[in-house]
Amino acid sequence: MKRSLHSPVCKPPLLVFSLALLFSISGVMAGFAGTIYTVTNTNDSGDNSLRKAIELANQNSDLDTIQFNIPGAGDQMISVYSPLVITNPVIIQGPNANGGEIWLNGQSASAGSAVYSGLQIEASGCTIRGLVIGNFTGNGIYVGKTDADVSNTTIAGNQISGQFVAGNKKSGIYLFRTTNTMIGGSTPADRNIISGNNEYGIVLHSGGNNIVQGNYVGVNIDGTASRSNGYSGIYIAYSDGNTIGGTTSAARNIISGHSEISSGINLYNASENTIQGNYVGTNAAGTAALPNFDGIQISQEGSSNNTIGGTESGMGNLISGNEDAGIRLVVSSPGANNRVLGNTIGTNAAKTAAIPNLHGIRVHMGDGVVIGGTSAGAGNLISGNASNGIIIPYAGVVNTVIQGNHIGTDGTGAGPLGNGSQGIDIYQASGTTIGGTGAGAANTIAYNGRTGVRLSYSNSPAPEIRHNSIRGNSIYGNGILGIDLSPNGVTPNDPGDPDTGPNELQNFPVLTGVQANGGQTRVSGTLNSIPGKTYHLDFFAGGSCDPSGYGQGEQYLGSAQATTDSGGNASFQATLNARLTGSGVVTATATDPDGNTSEFSACHPYTAKGGSGLPGILMLLLQDG
Known about the structure:
Blueprint: H1 19-22, E1 36-39, H2 50-58, E2 64-68, E3 76-79, E4 84-86, E5 90-96, E6 102-105, H3 107-110, E7 119-121, E8 127-129, E9 132-134, E10 141-144, E11 150-151, E12 154-156, E13 159-161, E14 173-176, E15 178-179, E16 182-184, E17 193-195, E18 202-205, E19 211-213, E20 216-217, E21 234-237, E22 243-245, E23 254-255, E24 263-268, E25 274-276, E26 279-280, E27 294-299, E28 307-309, E29 318-319, E30 325-330, E31 339-341, E32 344-345, E33 359-367, E34 370-372, E35 381-382, E36 390-392, E37 397-398, E38 401-403, E39 406-407, E40 424-426, E41 433-435, E42 444-446, E43 453-455, E44 469-471, E45 474-476, E46 483-485, E47 510-517, E48 520-528, E49 534-542, E50 555-563, E51 569-578, E52 583-591, E53 604-607, E54 620-621
Parallel strand pairs: 1-2, 2-5, 3-6, 4-7, 5-8, 6-9, 7-10, 8-12, 10-14, 11-15, 12-16, 13-17, 14-18, 16-19, 17-20, 18-21, 19-22, 20-23, 21-24, 22-25, 23-26, 24-27, 25-28, 26-29, 27-30, 28-31, 29-32, 30-33, 31-34, 32-35, 33-36, 33-37, 34-38, 35-39, 36-40, 38-41, 39-42, 40-43, 41-44, 42-45, ...
Antiparallel strand pairs: 47-48, 48-51, 49-50, 49-52, 51-54, 52-53
């Protein structure tokens, strides 16, 4: 059985000796800092065995190498009856000299009561490469000590899975108090297959600054079918500063197949970790679903300043095909500031067709979550999901920022690839910023099955859902309304605006005239709301009106301000430096000083002088930010 999961051993020019001569198991070759030991049999112990080579390497503080030249064709299985404990730096280099696999099989101990790992690494600076490790009562590989950190370990090119032998009864790889360790690498030869283990694929517990890249976790050797680990694919707990993935295709992890309420990646009380460039919930080609339950979950109070994705080329993750949420955020600590940037959530890798999660992003708890941003590359594509693009279903979520995203479009930003229900669904959150009038802040929220942005609640009495600003976005082509403040459907204005509900059920403007002439558009109308307040009025154009007679807003035209008098009334005539052509409709929203944005107003038609066709913005200079 052959694999391409390892690289050949690099033998310096001095290695002109035969392998038989190399197996002077206590000798040191001239010109080397350490000893090279060659394993020549499959015995659990005794001369020329793997265990004996490790025992001798443990007596030498230099970096030794253990390699294999076991006679016989095909793969070789070493049945391991007790843990192989490494206490000094060593390189264990598979495969066999004839290219066959070296299997470390714990099956002989499986029926007993002892729980131990296959390789137990207690020394820094070790490398484990080119082995098949399975059927141990503990972990496949355990790296760590209880009384000191272990660092600079490399685990690459291995199969730690149930592909050819049974999976390990605990996790595939477990790092405890480990730093600066590499699991995998940036070439195909470095790839570990970590699948079919009873608990987690990879655990990073305590320690930090480790790198996990280029691995297949929870899938088969080809990345075409699920071979689930029992729990999450990668579990990071109390460990900070780790990087999962990378910016090249070779550094990409495939983390899929972990259903039954398990996540592809689970961060628990972990901070400043970066998850980038991975496929989470799909096959290796990014063309079909291999579901996790959730793609990525960040939970617990101490989880802060984690980044899913990034703004540079290759940093975004493909997070699609998962049974519930592509991303689930459950972090209650103030100022947690977890960021979701530049990802593709709910589509295939080509961004042309849906591979749906149930929901794209679920924010259950959180303070300062950032989804997208104003800088180039920060926006996410959140499309094709079966239900909502983004849902914030519970109270306690505050100060979320959603900017610069495409929610419901294909990868071009123009074609339809809608989410099945709402683009953004906010049940009980406050202080949310959706879009903005500054450069790069606007979201495109289009083609979703129901509402573009819905603010609602599901319990009684109604909770506070306030200060959710929805400004400057391109919202169009959604199935029901552009913005809906519960109860469902258009909420009529009320005199003086005393009613309460989501965003205080802020009244929308009433447009009385639109003139589009040359390089300017003049919009007149009235606003009735709370007396003595100054409101931001945002104006939008579109080709046609929503069937309700109330607008959505495809093209942001600009803003103005209006201050209500003692009776709560204001009249406005806003002159916008925006050129419209042809005919269409204009709509508007009002946002109070506390950030409560209204639904869209009723549409007002226009016909531009000297133009034809659909409206197009040729020049835009905002009057008011």
